[in-house]
Design brief:
The chain is an alpha+beta fold.
Length: 569
Amino acid sequence: MTQMFIKKAFVPLLLTSALLTVTACTKEPVAAPKVPSTDTTAPTTGIKYTAPFKDGRYDPPITLTTINQISASTTFKNGETMENNVHTKWAKERLGINLKYNWTAPAANKAFETRLRLALSANEDMPDVVAIAGNTALANDLIDSGKFMEVGKMWEQYASPLYKKAVNEDPSMWYPFMRKDGAYGIPIPEYSMNDDTVFYIREDWLEKLNIKAPTTIDEMEKVMDAFVNQDPDGNGKKDTYGMAAAFRDSLVSTQATAGWLFGAYGTMAEIWNEKPDGTLAYGSVQPGVKPALGKLRDWVDKGYIHKEAALMDETKAAALFTSGRAGIIAGPHWMTLFPLADLMKNVPGAKFKAYTLPKGPDGKQGRKGNLNFSGSVLINKNAKNPEAFFVYQNYLFENFAFPGKDSEFKYQFAEGYDYAIVDGKPTADTTKIPGGRVIPQKYTIAFEGARIPSTQMEAYANLAKGNGPTNQFEVRSSLIADAPRLQAATINLALKDISYREKYTAPPTKTMKSRWDNLKQQEKDTFAKIIYGEVPLDEFDNFVKTWESSGGNTITGEVNEWYQSVKKK
């Protein structure tokens, strides 16, 4: 049975280079990128529009074509769809931009990526604007197709001051999309520490079994054993698990992650870590991975982790927790509202609480942290109105990212969707919004409206003090920052110095282009077989040797050549 799990879950679809046989001249990555201007003043030159433009909108409206990947948290109401909803109506009325979707596809099971790669393979015309969430490899394949324009010059001419400020909080977010002749992707800023891991534990189970929350790996094993063997849900059946984990797509995913376990042994699998000597090393081949895999192997064998974790994505693993069957789950602070709030709906009397991460045998803690950008936007070199994206995104940054008291977005995106006015006061309580709460900012081109990295955690830090909001952004944040979220955010902030963030953010190196897919597949296969007991733990040592001799050492050298060039700047 475990063999079936491995075949289905740890061998994801690999679209080979043959699928990318588009006519293009591949643009070589630049070693030490010169990012676009960091000047955050308002544009004073180069302002021109490709269609009649007056009072902040195109008149008559122009059409901007795009595509969209629909995440699990993208939901609709009032019979709306991605093509026709409160956001598309807003864009047309406010900005004179008629958003037209050539197609949409789910993010799940790589459906969006597969559809887009097939479009590249078939040499289909690309839309005016393409936004890619997270997947820098896919973004770079699009850049290398030759279908998208250099955007650095447009950025300097058109990007608004707050838009520039958001990106310039971390100029390295440009690095994955740079080429020798400029920037080919506009980074999508993300909230700092937005996806960094905290622990959530069933507080009612701890109380019932009269045990304390774990602070070390050893203590955690005792807690998980109790959650599995002492009937914490009181139904007389052995049907509970110590921890919900999602292994299908990654061992260090965002929700239901095992990344913290690797951190407890001094490394972070699947990303490039900085070593004490200032060089980069690939986390999955570091010594700390071996004991972490050994723990996962033991926990699956003892039933602490569901044996079908290899088939579970983040949504399914979270459902194990919210259905009342698992006692621990690791994930971001925002999980308190979605999906963990479903636990109380599904299990009367249940409650959870956020905790710090357990320490490893040497007292180490670590977690995978998100970068300050979540993806990129590419503009078709044949777009009829290429500046229209800046008209659209500038407005969101200047009015949504950090709203003023008179902003149309001062509470959330749209009344009746993500908030309601009840007795003269705004609320994001889904039970008080007719038809339930949906999040229109998920419909926007850049997935989350517009975000300035530093703002969210700063807002939560102040709100957690109990002093009340000091600006309109904090007012808006307070609508979703209930007590559980602020408690989780406080834990998150306390752990700010233990996050591992991907240090290699440039395009694929020369050897990566030919060897990385095979190396990643070897990694997935080996780790899966170790976790499910099909090979001994010492097989990890053989994997490392093979990885190094099969291109890993060469790639490490190329990665460090880039990293040192960047650090010198």
